[in-house]
């Protein structure tokens, strides 16, 4: 929209803002005790990765300390984090999964 302001020639643009929801990075954190194979299974089960992708991401976390495993809308990200944390708890692994606004 062009909104003419008063009787001078100043014109301001009003953006047609279609608002997208904020997205959230879901991250996996490294630790010294969670077995590599468990992390690989978690990535396959909850993030729909194939085996090769899962191994690659797991090794990135292992070497760098953390990695983004996916970016989702808030509710989805929350569910992924809860699923990973519950699976880690059930299996008595200290694996940590967190989310952060992009
Ligand atoms: N560092 C763990 C080990 O050596 C493996 C591991 C990878 C743990 C990724 C957590 O998010 C993680 N067994």
Question: What do these coordinates show?
Answer:
Helix 1 packs across helix 2. It contains three helices and five strands. The strands form two sheets. The protein has a three-stranded antiparallel sheet with strand order 4-3-5. A hairpin with a 6-residue loop joins strand 1 (2-4) and strand 2 (11-13). It is α+β, with helices and mostly antiparallel strands and 102 residues long. The model is unreliable at 1-6 (pLDDT under 50). The structure holds L-tyrosinamide. Residues 28-32, 34-36, 39, 58, 61-62, 95 line the site of L-tyrosinamide (TYC). This is ATP-dependent Clp protease adapter protein ClpS. Involved in the modulation of the specificity of the ClpAP-mediated ATP-dependent protein degradation. It comes from Litoreibacter albidus. Residues 1-19 are annotated as: Disordered.
Question: What is the strand and helix layout of this fold?
Answer:
Layout: E1 2-4, E2 11-13, E3 23-29, H1 36-47, H2 51-64, E4 66-73, H3 74-90, E5 96-101
Helix pairs in contact: 1-2
Bound molecules: L-tyrosinamide (TYC).
